[in-house]
């Protein structure tokens, strides 16, 4: 049984009580229940991690509360009784903070409501007095509580899927492997079957299974689970999506936007939003974020969201003929890749009545509605003031920070006060982008991920995540303060070296704070999410100042390569930084292992360890580095970055003005029709791109189809080509550029297609 009954007993107690407990334990075992015992009463609250595990992994908790027998029923009078009840109350409080549904029963002798305070009684499921009933009867009572609890654990869709997979019925529908049996007809198929397991394959079904409901129509158990998830995430409507938030974004856009509609878009948005512009034929105007010289994207200034600023952008656009058209949709990245989060309540208020709909791309923020640290910083919350006219959408990747499988996503909708959300139109866009053969395991993970966040479980999980991230940050800072030479850093406010949760005010961006390096910041309009940790390496400041020759300098890509070969894969790499993502799955063991690996890297750097010894797999893939030392490589690559002033260049390509030549959808159509020329990088200046140009890292689009390629961008692409030849294995790549390290081209429009 995966969920044992946990029995919590004091270190000492009356011998008779211990005997009755032993009899009860024997009776519980006879019912088939598995037991787990905890002792040493009074120490539990000092071990919150252990109690969190108890709360989440128990089918029931029996807490043995020993009070003095024979006192009046008016309540505890002996100091020992007062202390015992206080300890029990603390225990129950911690368990309930992590699980508001697991049965908690007090076990004792002559326990009554008059001896137990209301603060404890209101949070438990019952009292068991050892001598009032036989051990076998009490065991059946406890077994009933366990059965009820476990029977209610699974949310509607996952419960239905488990019933179907366990039913043993033959499958006469697709997929063709028929519950996994098709794989068993081949040796490699058998290997596949054994690796993934029968349950996953039995649960891989098609939409012909009516009892599971329909994702495309939102019926049956799927609809029940979506309604429960909507309640958990405080949305008026919530829809599961099985192929990622890239698809969620396109569903929202195709339900709202048509050819010629004006849309306002965060310039550093995810490429799926730009794809949506191409698909819908929309006319974009862009909101421009700031950026520091270390490559971290900052917030869009508050003024950019005002009606006046948006009107100025419309007037300046060469692509908009009718300057009086309303803005159909505004899309904002909330949070950015680096963790910048806007005050969503303020943005909703500013934009209400200015745009028809607001789309918060919260792929990296599904956790925000579950903790006070983020209050007012997430787009949808139907317990807050509604917008009068603008419908608010949020798209979230539950697989990024919560517990969904890859591609698990969801769309949240909050209707305006006058009820403008049209679910009928939305349903058509949903069907356009959703497969008729969805992966049911992904649907189940959407369901389970939402259920894990319901009640007090979600806030507890998010608080744990924040705490672990803060402990990691503080550890890195402490080691740096104690190191006689160099160490790594963390990008963020210089918070006091205390324990516990962060103060919200410390993480809000202000103009006078030097740590962020942004030129334009509105006080209190945005904050840094502390769980998005940017680990910095020596070599470059946020203001673009390179370390002098001979000083420690560690390009981020070198450290990332080392960590990957030693079992640590980071989310994103910057010039002199790594992005380390803290999710609900992060543990102390994991981030402490990262700290240990950083120590080993530092020692290898100090000893100039040979690359083939330090990273044998990398050295085998790139034999040209054989015999080179780690420090030598770092210093030479640093010199290359410095000589090219790459910090300034990689900032300029994202912040210089963009010239729009033709609509993105026109540029895409011309490319699809073959009306493009593949122009060498050296000849690109002044040409109009037909493709998205997206440097990796960081993976943020640089140019949109239909925009002019500047001399600065050409200089960047040429330098990227030179780096690839000189430093193979230590460079990125720009998607949209074709060819090899010696001859690269970009698809550009012919002159006859460069029309607005």
UniProtKB/TrEMBL annotation:
<dbReference type="InterPro" id="IPR005308">
    <property type="entry name" value="OKR_de-COase_N"/>
</dbReference>
<dbReference type="GO" id="GO:0005829">
    <property type="term" value="C:cytosol"/>
</dbReference>
<dbReference type="InterPro" id="IPR000310">
    <property type="entry name" value="Orn/Lys/Arg_deCO2ase_major_dom"/>
</dbReference>
<dbReference type="GO" id="GO:0030170">
    <property type="term" value="F:pyridoxal phosphate binding"/>
</dbReference>
<dbReference type="Pfam" id="PF01276">
    <property type="entry name" value="OKR_DC_1"/>
</dbReference>
<dbReference type="InterPro" id="IPR015422">
    <property type="entry name" value="PyrdxlP-dep_Trfase_small"/>
</dbReference>
<protein>
    <submittedName>
        <fullName>Arginine decarboxylase</fullName>
        <ecNumber>4.1.1.19</ecNumber>
    </submittedName>
</protein>
<dbReference type="Pfam" id="PF03711">
    <property type="entry name" value="OKR_DC_1_C"/>
</dbReference>
<dbReference type="InterPro" id="IPR011193">
    <property type="entry name" value="Orn/lys/arg_de-COase"/>
</dbReference>
<dbReference type="Pfam" id="PF03709">
    <property type="entry name" value="OKR_DC_1_N"/>
</dbReference>
<feature type="domain" description="Orn/Lys/Arg decarboxylases family 1 pyridoxal-P attachment site">
    <location>
        <begin position="395"/>
        <end position="409"/>
    </location>
</feature>
<feature type="modified residue" description="N6-(pyridoxal phosphate)lysine">
    <location>
        <position position="400"/>
    </location>
</feature>
<dbReference type="InterPro" id="IPR008286">
    <property type="entry name" value="Prn/Lys/Arg_de-COase_C"/>
</dbReference>
<keyword id="KW-0663">Pyridoxal phosphate</keyword>
<keyword id="KW-0210">Decarboxylase</keyword>
<dbReference type="InterPro" id="IPR015424">
    <property type="entry name" value="PyrdxlP-dep_Trfase"/>
</dbReference>
<keyword id="KW-0456">Lyase</keyword>
<comment type="similarity">
    <text>Belongs to the Orn/Lys/Arg decarboxylase class-I family.</text>
</comment>
<dbReference type="InterPro" id="IPR015421">
    <property type="entry name" value="PyrdxlP-dep_Trfase_major"/>
</dbReference>
<dbReference type="InterPro" id="IPR036633">
    <property type="entry name" value="Prn/Lys/Arg_de-COase_C_sf"/>
</dbReference>
<dbReference type="GO" id="GO:0006527">
    <property type="term" value="P:L-arginine catabolic process"/>
</dbReference>
<dbReference type="GO" id="GO:0008792">
    <property type="term" value="F:arginine decarboxylase activity"/>
</dbReference>
